[in-house]
Specification:
single chain, 95 residues, alpha/beta, 4-stranded parallel sheet, 3 helices, 36% helix, globular
Length: 95
């Protein structure tokens, strides 16, 4: 089973260690939107953007991202529902 096209990462610890593998799986599964909420969410969003874009030589790699410092998880999930990038219900992934 793959990830849905909309993902909300709930960062409980602020860790960034599994992000490289996770982002590659998101790309392989066709994720179109990632929202990040919780501890160090802005930093995690920046790292995701860097991992997706890399050196810019692979133009097909694109995922829309957003970070939501200080916002509750349920509000970020609701926000993800309104985003037109990607289809379906947002999937929450804990970090």
């Amino acid at each position: 089973m793959g990830y849905s096209q909309k993902v909300v990462i709930h960062s409980k610890s602020g860790t960034t260690s599994p992000l490289d593998q996770l982002v590659e799986q998101f790309i392989a599964d066709g994720v179109r939107f990632i929202a990040v909420v919780g501890t160090e969410c802005a930093l995690i969003e920046d790292i995701i953007d860097e991992l997706v874009v890399g050196d810019g030589s692979r133009e097909a790699r694109f995922i829309l991202t957003s970070s939501h410092p200080g916002e509750p998880l349920d509000e970020v999930v609701q926000f993800a529902r309104t985003i037109r990038e990607g289809l379906g219900e947002p999937q929450v992934v804990e970090l």
